[in-house]
Amino acid sequence: MHLSWINATAGFGVGLLVGLTGVGGGSLMTPIMILLFGIAPSTAVGTDLWFAAITKIVGAWVHDRRGTIDWQILRRMFCGSLPAAVLTLWWLHAATFRKQFHAFGIRMRGARPIEFKSVQPALTVLAGAILGFLVTFTSIGAGALGAVMLLYLYPIRLTASSLVGTDIVHAIPLTILAGTGHLILGNVNYGLLVNLLIGSVPGILLGAYLSTWAPEKLVRSGISVMLAVVGSKMVLA
User: Fold this and answer.
1) Does the predicted model carry a pTM greater than 0.70?
2) Nearest to 83 by CA among 174, 161, 212, 19
3) Phi and psi for 43 in degrees, rounded to 5?
4) Is pLDDT of 93 > 90?
């Protein structure tokens, strides 16, 4: 294996964005590997799952130290996403409608708070199940769609930094579980993975620290921009 500064730079850029917003890992890295590096799609998916898992473990450590992880919401998400990851596939839409989801969640939370809170646990499990299907098949969605779902389900409870931290941690066991299947199938390029991680680890460390210090409005704006980019890519793909 030789060091590729191009791969490491790509890893740093994606890691920085994921650390700042919780969004963009698979949605950006998989296309980069396929379109720019010429990696076969199946290998790109398998490699990206391990890239995301290892990178986000580092980011999760920062957010855990900063107290920006909602563990109750995570347990609910895991109840749906981990069993669903074993089954695979379905659903790929919604990131372009981030503002509408958040606004709808705010309206529902304000107009019918008791009813809304009563269905939050079940809907969170369902959201996790949807992500489990999607991430296992494509390596895309844990960050982008997870952020959209959490914005809708917890429009008041989650601050911007807590949204980022919770979204990052949720993706870790999900991507490890899905990545293990691809590892067994031989769909992981170890040399490429190491080069990407050389850049992504410092990138996500920097991004995660910045997300916990930056003003909430700035972090939310960053999430919005990343969701718009990812959503556009999904629609145009």
Assistant:
1) no
2) 174
3) -70, -35
4) no
